[in-house]
Structures are given as C-alpha cells and as structure tokens.
Amino acid sequence: MKIINVGLIGFGTIGAGVAKVLLENRQVISDRLGAELNLQKIADLDITTDRGMTLPDGILTTNIEELIGNPEIDIVIELIGGYEPARTFVSRALQSKQSVVTANKALLAKHGNELFALARENGVDFYYEASVAGGIPIIKVIREALAGNRINSVCGILNGTCNYILSKMGDEGADFAEVLQQAQDLGYAEADPTFDIEGIDTAHKLAILTSLAFATPIDYEKIHVEGISAIKPVDFAFAREFGYKIKLLAIAKQEDECIETRVHPTMIPESHMLAKIDDVFNAVFVNADSLGSSLYYGQGAGMMATASAVVGDLVDIARNRLGDNLRRVPDLSFQTAAIKPRTYRPMSEIISQYYLRFLAHDKTSVLSKIAGILGSNKISIASVIQQGRGQSGDTVAIVMQTHKAKEKDLRLALTEIDQLSIIAAPTAVIRMESDL
Ligand code: HSE
Predict the structure, then answer these.
(1) Closest-lying ligand 1 atom to the alpha carbon of residue 158
(2) Which domain range does residue 229 map to?
(3) Which residue from 103, 97, 138 is spatially nearest to 10, judged by alpha carbons?
(4) Residue 359: in which H helix or E strand, if any?
(5) How far apart are CA 76 and CA 18, in angstroms?
(6) Residue 266, beta-bridge partner list
(7) Which among 14, 157, 159, 186 is the best mutation to test ligand 1's pocket, defined by most ligand atoms within 8 Å of the CB?
C-alpha cells in the first residue's frame, strides 16, 4: 500500500489530538484513502511531557529541520499557532514543495494572501479547515458544496469561549470573570484570552470566511471588531424582556456591490436558530441564492473536534496527491483572477436596530429629553422599559429598542445625550439583528 508521510509541528492539545486520530483511526483512514497516512515526525520544544499515548520510537524531535524540507515528508501540519515562527515554518515548507495543513486563523488573517501565493507558486496544497469553527467543515462547504451559489451572507458564532461565557451569563446570571476562568480551565480560551473576549479571534475567522464567500483577498483590517467584556448581567435580563438573546456574532454580507463585515455583541430573536447555539458550540448560518439558508453546527474548539478537521484536510491532500491532482480546489474557493479587492461599507453607514441602556438621574422630563434628541437625529423608538429606582439612590435605567437606523445618526444622538447633566454614565449600545 502506498504511504503518505506526515510531519507535525506543535505537540500541544490539538497536536496530541491529531496524533491520537492518526494512530487510533489508522485503519479506517487507510480504508477510505487506499493508502496509509503515516505520522513520521513530531517536532516540539517539549518532547518529554506525557501526552497520554504511546508513540512509535524515533517520532519525536526538537529539530524542525527533520521535517521542513525533508523529501520523505509529503505533508507538514502547523499547529503552533501565532504569527512567528509559524509564518516562517509554513513558508519554508511550501517553498520546499511540501503541502501544508494549519489550524492557525491568526496567521491566515494576517499573512494568508502571501502564503496562498507561495502555495500556488510551488504547486502544493495549503489547507486550513480547522482554522474556522474548529470541527465544523465550513471551509469545505463554501469551497466545494456551495460552489454553484452566489453567497449573500455568512453569519456565525465562531468563538467557543465567548459563547460559553455569554450562555452562562445569560442562563445563570454568572459573573464575567468567573465564567472566563472556567472557559480557560476547560482549555477553550486562547493563550491570551484578550483574543477571545475582545472579538479578535472571531474577526480572524470572519476575515477568512469573507474572502471565501465574496472572492476578495483576506483583509482583517476591514472588519469592525467589538468584544464582550462590556456586557453586563442586566443586559441579558432586558434582552429577555424584548424576546432576544445576546451572542457575539460575526457578520459578513454583500449588498449593492458593497461588503459589510463586523464582529460585535448582537441581540438576536430567541426564535432564530443562532439564538439556540449555546455553551462552547459554534454555528455558521449561510444564505446563498440557490440553496437559501443553511446552518452548520458543532464543536468549534477542543482537542478531538479540531483534530478531526486537521485529519480531514490530510486525507483531502493525500487524495489529491494520489490522483496526481494537487491544487484541485482553489485555496480561497475562487480562481486567483476572480479574486479582487471589493468595496467595504464603512461602519458609519450600516443600518441596524439598537438596544440602548441609559443610566439617568431620576428627574422629571428625562425620557422626553432623550426621546427628543433621538428623534431629531432620525432615530425612531420601537419600545421603552423604565426600571425602578437604582441601588445608588437617584439613578434609573431606561432601556429602549429602536427601529432601524443608520449607525452614524445613532452615534451623533448618543454623543449629545451622554453630555446631558441628567445622564449618569455612558449609554450602553447593543445592535439588534432581526433579519439575518
Ligand atoms: N479560543 C477559540 C475558541 C479556539 O474559543 O473558539 C478555537 O479557535
């Protein structure tokens, strides 16, 4: 039986998962592939910690040169994460005409265009299924299954840590810091949790999906990013009263030849399928012209789910090699000539409904002053809830849901409102999306 040799860089949680799948599912993989995927080398700085598995002798090395450029190794897997030395290792492997599999969304969001160009120049495959939504095969869906569609929008819950935190805060009224710690203990959070809670990890993933869906180069800088650290337990209670859930949503849509890409906490109706995605799970909701709406749901993080996606990529590349058909699927779904920079809608021009939570001193005519300023800025109010007196004595929370309005108009109104002497703290804003 033909053997395809694989080298793994990075023997952390996901790396150990990949090794486990390759060793334990060796038979089922070769039954499908008609060849053997052989894990020939694993490189890591730490080769002494017990990863709970027995490896064949001689596999582990601290010397990266035993993998990169080694003519016996056909496919290199990069699982060290981050920008460097991942970028250097991946570039060198591609230049050595080794195909590469990565789970590294940060690397792709920042250097993807240059790395895909290298893969093209060297005639090798560069696959990255695990980089977006972990085990959910959303890259394969967009690149292959939906190839006959024009995609209108892609909206997703793409960060397990944030979804876990928001679910727990919503269901249990739990404290943000305590739930973040739980997510870290469970191994969901990135090494630097800022990437998770400030929406950066989600935006890295959205940058990749936007390129795949809309035939444009990967451009992380074009994404508007807001995280979840400012959401308060009281916002979940008000969301419930309006019939909404709060999710960190990644939104990419194309309208009037303009692309809109944003990541921010979003209130979505409880009846929407994305509102039902809880805990560490991820989901991607795609609207395409032939298929209509479809939802892809599963584990977006974790050792074995992510390993499943990495090994799926290995099998794809191995099949391409066996069929002498490397580069069968274009890296970013479209032929290079079709990938063009597109116009992105500035955030000030987006249209949304808004949840507004004002903290006001309990004086007469507060409500009419706020309503007057909103009205004079073309913001129309859909509903209002006024709480009883706050614990601090003379302040009250006033919560409003607006009709659809332009972001620019809302910001002008809030600048004016937050300067009023009757307003005790900056107004909290969460966008509400009812027609995803
Ligand atoms: N920290 C990420 C998450 C891991 O929480 O979803 C997968 O990218």
Answers:
(1) 6
(2) 138-300
(3) 103
(4) strand 351-361
(5) 12
(6) 247, 431
(7) 159
Say how many C-beta atoms besides its own lie within 10 A of residue 105's C-beta: 28
pTM beyond 0.90: the answer is: yes
300 lines ligand 1 (CB under 6 A): yes
What would the two tokens of residue 11 be? 């023997």
CB distance 10 to 104 below 8 Å: no
- In a domain? residue 251: yes
Mean pLDDT of 289-310: 96
pLDDT tens, position by position, 224-252: 999 999 998 899 999 999 999 999 999 99
* CA separation for the pair 252, 207 (Å, rounded): 9
Token pair recorded at residue 349:
């021009």
Instruction: Tell me whether residue 342 is in a domain.
Output: no
Residue 340 lies in a domain: no
387: CATH:
3.30.70.260
**Under a CB-based contact definition with an 8 Å cutoff, are residues 159 and 251 in contact?**
no
Asked whether residue 129 falls in the same domain as residue 152, the answer is no
**Whether pLDDT at 188 is above 80:** no
Sign of CA dihedral 265, 266, 267, 269: negative
Distance CA 283, CA 200 (A): 17
| Cβ count near 54 (within 10 Å) | 7
The catalytically annotated residue of 110, 168, 205, 245 is 205
- And the tokens for 375? 């009205």
Is 205 one of the annotated active-site residues of the chain? yes
Q: Are residues 312 and 362 in the same domain?
A: no
